[in-house]
Amino acid sequence: MASAKLGKSINGSAHYGYQWKDRKLVIKPEEAAIRKKAYELFLQHRRKGKVAKLLNAAGYRTRGGVIWHDSQVYRLLTDPSAKDIYYFNRMRQLEKSWQTVPKPENEWSKVECQPIISEAVWNHVNQIIEEHTKSWKRPRPSPVHLFGSLAHCACGEKMYVRAGSPKYVCRKCCNKIPIVDLEAIFHQEMKSFFAQPKRIAKHLQKASRNLVEKSALLGTHKREIQKVREEMHQTHQLYLQKQISGDGFHDLYAPAEERMKQLQTELPKLEAEVDFLRVNKLSADDILHEANSLYDKWPKMPLETKRKIGESLVEKIVIGDGDIDIFFSSRPSSGELCKNQQGLRSG
After folding, report:
1. Is 327 contained in some domain?
2. Structurally, how many domains does the chain consist of?
3. Global confidence as pTM
4. In CATH, what number is assigned to the domain containing residue 81?
5. pLDDT along the chain (347 residues), means of 10
6. What sections of the chain are H helices per DSSP?
């Protein structure tokens, strides 16, 4: 396509989180921080509507200044530009008609861009969305067993614990493993996970990235507060100058006032998170200490705490015939480890 070769802006406005600059697609920081937040919220709650509700409650709005809906969140999460690739030229117009239809995927054009999230996070989110779409059911509630969201059979199916059963079972091939055996194996592997210099280095890098990203979101949040404050001031000035009626003033001012309350309520939470990450940037020795403490206290932890730690440590567990593969992620960060420990101490 000529416009792509010449480096021109392609297919209209950039997707949320990006902007065209010097004929290139680059990150728009104030939107990218919110888009990243949407992925984090979805992994936590697994519901598009819940993500929209939480974004709105925090005072965030779409590029057009309106509240988020689940359909908009869906497009935000499934668009692959967030992981580094922007597709265009995906539709064609039918002859003698205004109707358009999708082109085959091998005919799409694409442009690379800086990612907002990792490919692993994007894949995880979209795998969940695909599962919801295939089942045509509401997302299931959070798992009640430790590895309910992580256990997979080597045949490719997920494994579940049936009511009253002491085992994880694959419904397709009937592969089984006792609950206590899987937890014991995980407990041992958890300690060795941290006993490697490369993994410690990844934790330190992750901790630094977390601080940078959370600081970016805080900066975006403060700019949004200033933007809404200016809009409220302008509306008030129009009313004082009698350029709008009392009813017009209310229609414009009330939504802005409500959004300001939402933003100001969320601000202390973000500031506390950034302060926490700054204070708890641990060293490699600190990480080993926290990891060993985590290992020692694991047997006495409540199930909910174990599950949160497990989900932060592991991407998935694949259970085969006589062997188990635990795919650890680069998480949790040093700050998250410290937070887990503080929670245990306070308990």
Report:
1. yes
2. 2
3. 0.61
4. 3.90.1750.20
5. 45 81 87 93 91 94 92 93 85 79 82 88 88 63 72 88 87 90 87 69 74 89 94 94 92 93 93 80 62 80 82 82 78 42 39
6. 2-5, 29-45, 48-57, 70-78, 119-135, 179-194, 197-240, 246-279, 284-297, 303-313, 334-346
